[in-house]
């Protein structure tokens, strides 16, 4: 059983820790993350530019800002955030992931502050940008977790989350087909823990934030992962202080 004082589920942390060595291999167990990373980074950049009214042509729109990547894995989002100019702190529940992330960042010449733990690991700190991609469905208490995210968001900051929707399509695509065919490591998802957009919106609003944008992340054999209106498989919610 998980400790009630932490957002971390030890079983989930152990599962993802076992995948650490292959996290940066685009053909390994995290291949699906590599495929969805470009569109989600595209969505993130669009929200950054919209929120701070930045120059879309700038290479470093996050210069001078602090960013927090929650559930960072081995750094697939943390490293792009650093390249966009942010001072990045990144946290993950699996120590194995943090070790791989630190080694890869060093090889890449990036200065990222990696820490092992849940949202509690940054208690008392605030960040201009918080990213939390495909994480909330793995935590002990989603409501408490979102409150923790809100508490870590600086005034004027932006929170961007993504998570699978709880639909028939997500059960079929992500569990029956994805995990069943070995495209996603077996045991990665529990469909009953998926949140609908209405569920997550309510949690975000209960934490004192307001939703400023939503978008879907869908998949087709011809186009791969794309961002659009279809939220049946996976979706984004961006939020700011109310």
Provide an overview of this structure.
The protein has one domain (10-241): Vaccinia Virus protein VP39 (Rossmann fold, 3-Layer(aba) Sandwich). It has helices at 10-17, 31-52, 78-83, 95-108, 142-152, 168-179, 197-206; strands at 66-70, 87-92, 113-116, 127-133, 153-164, 209-220, 224-228, 234-241. The longest helix is centred in the first third of the chain and has 22 residues, at 31-52. Strands 3-2-1-4-5-8-6-7 form an eight-stranded mixed sheet. With 242 residues, the chain is of the alpha/beta class.
Compile the SSE list and pairings:
Blueprint (H helix, E strand, L loop, with lengths): L9 H8 L13 H22 L13 E5 L7 H6 L3 E6 L2 H14 L4 E4 L10 E7 L8 H11 E12 L3 H12 L17 H10 L2 E12 L3 E5 L5 E8 L1
Parallel strand pairs: 1-2, 1-4, 2-3, 4-5
Antiparallel strand pairs: 5-8, 6-7, 6-8
CATH superfamily: Vaccinia Virus protein VP39
Task: Write down how many β-strands occur, each being a DSSP E stretch of 2 or more residues.
Answer: 8
Strand content: 15-25%
As for the CATH topology, it is: Rossmann fold
Strand arrangement in the largest pleated sheet: 3-2-1-4-5-8-6-7
Summed up, the helix count is 7
Terminal CA distance reads: 35 Å
Helix content: 25-40%
Main β-sheet description = 8 strands, mixed
**Which class in CATH terms?**
Alpha Beta
Number of individual domains: 1
């Amino acid at each position: 059983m998980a400790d009630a004082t932490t957002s971390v589920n030890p079983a989930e942390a152990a599962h993802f820790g076992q995948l650490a060595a292959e996290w940066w291999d685009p053909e390994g167990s995290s291949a699906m993350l590599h495929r969805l990373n470009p569109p989600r980074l595209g969505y993130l950049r669009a929200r950054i530019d919209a929120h701070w009214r930045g120059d879309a042509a700038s290479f470093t729109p996050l210069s001078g800002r602090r960013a927090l990547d929650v559930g960072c894995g081995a750094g697939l989002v943390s490293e792009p955030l650093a390249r966009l100019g942010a001072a990045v702190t990144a946290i993950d529940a699996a120590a194995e992931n943090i070790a791989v992330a630190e080694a890869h960042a060093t090889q890449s010449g990036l200065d990222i502050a990696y820490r092992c733990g849940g949202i509690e690991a940054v208690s008392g700190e605030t960040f201009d940008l918080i990213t939390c991609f495909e994480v909330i469905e793995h935590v002990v208490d989603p409501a408490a977790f979102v409150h923790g995210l809100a508490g870590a968001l600086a005034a004027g900051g932006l929170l961007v989350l993504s998570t699978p929707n709880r639909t028939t399509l997500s059960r079929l695509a992500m569990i029956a087909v994805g995990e069943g065919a070995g495209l996603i490591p077996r045991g990665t998802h529990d469909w009953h823990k998926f949140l609908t957009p209405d569920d997550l919106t309510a949690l975000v609003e209960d934490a004192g934030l307001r939703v400023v944008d939503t978008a879907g992340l869908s998949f087709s054999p011809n186009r791969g992962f794309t961002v659009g209106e279809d939220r049946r498989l996976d979706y984004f919610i961006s939020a700011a202080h109310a």
